[in-house]
Amino acid sequence: MNLNKNYANVNDSYLFSTIAKKVAAYSADHPEKKVLRLGIGDVTLPLAPAVIEALHSAVDEMAKKETFRGYGPEQGYDFLRDSIAAYYKERGVELDGDEIFVSDGAKSDLGNIIDLFSQDNVVLVPDPVYPVYVDTNVMAGRKIIYSDATEANGFLPMPDYSVDADIIYICSPNNPTGAAYTKAQLKEWVDYANKKGAVILYDAAYECFIKDDELAKSIYQVEGAKTCAIEFCSFSKMAGFTGTRCGYTVVPKSITKGGLSANKMWLRRQTTKFNGVPYIVQRAAAAVFTPEGRKQIAENLAYYEENAKLIANTLKELGVWFTGGEHSPYIWLKCPGGMGSWEFFDYLLENAQVVGTPGAGFGVNGEGFFRLTAFGSKEVTKEAMERIKNLLSK
Ligand code: MLT
User: Fold this and answer.
1) Which residue minimizes the CA distance to atom 8 of ligand 1?
2) pLDDT reported for residue 12
3) Distance in Å, CA 42 to ligand 1 centroid
4) Is 104 helix (H, G, I), strand (E, B) or coil?
5) Across residues 349-369, what is the average pLDDT?
6) 151 CA to centre of ligand 1 in angstroms
7) I want to staple 234 with a disulfide (CB 3.0 to 4.6 A). Which of 168, 205, 292, 373 is the partner?
């Protein structure tokens, strides 16, 4: 056999695994120090009561012969796909049930979707970017080109017609910068993709943080998107499912090329390589859309938004430049004193025992920047800000 040589071109370790290893090594050397984690965007609030209730009753169903479930429908149960379709309808987006595919999360789907596309497709990713888009395409041996997301363009690169791309990744609100496209800006990307015959892989995992109507919660709020965009969404950030695992992907039936349909291909791919999300988890996910679920989840999101405000106010007080945190759980700051991203990571860990994510881990343009997450607990966020204040005002 031969191993896939493309793996030689990816970093030895996934960004968040590298950070976890570094923090574990530090803790092993300094067991007396309490480390505060604002690195990976992992939620800290428990699942909402409506979700827990749905989980319990689904578990009870699994315990009885009459209500026990085995393999489920491959695209997800109708009760969940109907709730997702209704959620889209609220924003003026009509979807057919068979355009929605329930999965174990946006990360897996974002990584797996590239099975549908030809090897010689050119991939356009913004830099800095969620590392999954780059790593999965490097593993597949595809050519990757970058669009610069910088302070100058508000971390929102716009299409350049002199560049030819086939697969375009957009994440809005953006991980890691927190920048979010307006519907008008996204329309420019949709027009570009339709003109070039490209596909947009739109990561909407953070849409629940959008409060402004000008900003897009879904790319399908933009005219023309259904012929060029596949959208990925997740219950992880919206409803605290990072450990429960559930997401969904929308593959419109109007995305076709050379007589092939992306929707049919994704169904074929998923039915072959994936056996669906557990029934109990799908019941839990459906509870997110009930009136009680919606209310409870809004309270949880407001809690994280308070954390984001606290981080933002601390940085303002310290005179540290930052962006994000408004329509996003991420605050993207410039490392003080001209420090490099990893240098600042070590400095914070060693002197304040606070963990963040080095901007350089998201791409070349992330060098000199640093990401803090608002998904920590209120207590940890408060203490971390106190420590950062003490350290940086010295
Ligand atoms: C992050 O910290 O960027 C995210 O938690 C990663 C993810 O959602 O997979």
Assistant:
1) 41
2) 76
3) 7
4) coil
5) 97
6) 22
7) 205
Using CB atoms within 10 Å of the CB of residue 78, give its burial: 0 to 12 exposed, 13 to 18 middle, 19+ buried.
exposed
User: Phi/psi at 297 (nearest 5 deg)?
Assistant: -70, -35
239: left (phi over 0), alpha (psi -120 to 50) or beta: alpha
Give yes or no for residue 13 having a pLDDT over 90: no
The alpha-helical segments, DSSP class H, found in 224-290 are 236-239, 262-273, 279-287
pLDDT at 14 over 90: no
What's the pTM value of the predicted model, to 2 decimals? 0.96
Q: Does the CB atom of residue 175 touch ligand 1 within 6 A?
A: yes
Q: What token pair was written down for 127? A: 């830099």
What DSSP designation does 295 have? H
Distance of CA 53 from the midpoint of ligand 1 (Å) = 27
The string of DSSP codes covering 31-92 is TTS--EE-SS----SPPPHHHHHHHHHHHHHHTSTTT---S--TT--HHHHHHHHHHHHTTT
Minimum-distance ligand 1 atom for the alpha carbon of 16: 2
pLDDT > 90 fraction of the chain, expressed in percent and rounded: 98
Q: Which residues contact 329 (CB under 8 A, 6 or more apart)?
A: 41, 178, 206, 209, 237, 304, 308, 373, 374, 375
Q: Are 217 and 236 in contact (CB under 8 A)?
A: no
Q: Work out the pLDDT band at 157, boundaries 50, 70, 90.
A: very high
Tokens for 140?
A: 């597949």
Q: Determine whether 297 is exposed, middle or buried from the number of CB atoms within 10 Å of its CB (0-12, 13-18, 19+).
A: buried
